[in-house]
Amino acid sequence: MIVSTKGRYALRVMVSLALARDGEYIPLKQIAEEEQISRKYLEAIMTTLSKAGFVDAVHGKGGGYRLNRPTRDYTVGSILKLTEGGLATVSCTTQGPSACARATCCRTLPMWERLDKMIDDFFEGITLEDLLNEGQNG
């Protein structure tokens, strides 16, 4: 599994917003400059995060973005699943129309499913609060 720039940048932005003072809206321009992300790409990421209810957005003068819940309530897994569309390591473990036609007879599928569960458990076990605390220790 390779996490795209969208997923990595979304995590960086969420950490950046977590470092802001409570209730403070951070302008898109400021986030883009601090995180060295193009404004256009950042707009797409912020739209995704906003539509999913991960952040609050206010447009216009004095506007920007902020987290809308405590940092312990955001998991790395939830952010990556939103921005990456899932965490499946191989296409045959995805659900829906792209699910594998050989799933009922594939002897390797259980191994891939276990790997996916390990990855999901790992990322769901890390919160924004954990990332902030790790940053203070190292």
Description:
The chain has 138 residues and is mostly helical. It has a domain at 5-87 and 127-137: Winged helix-like DNA-binding domain superfamily/Winged helix DNA-binding domain (Arc Repressor Mutant, subunit A, Orthogonal Bundle), CATH 1.10.10. It has 6 helices and 2 strands. It has helices at residues 5-18, 28-35, 39-51, 76-84, 109-124, 128-137, and strands at 55-58, 64-67. A two-stranded antiparallel ribbon has the order 1-2. Helix 1 (5-18) crosses helix 4 (76-84) and helix 4 packs across helix 5 (109-124). The longest helix is centred in the last third of the chain and has 16 residues, at 109-124. The radius of gyration is 17 Å and the shape is elongated. It starts with a helix and ends with a helix. The relative contact order is 0.17.
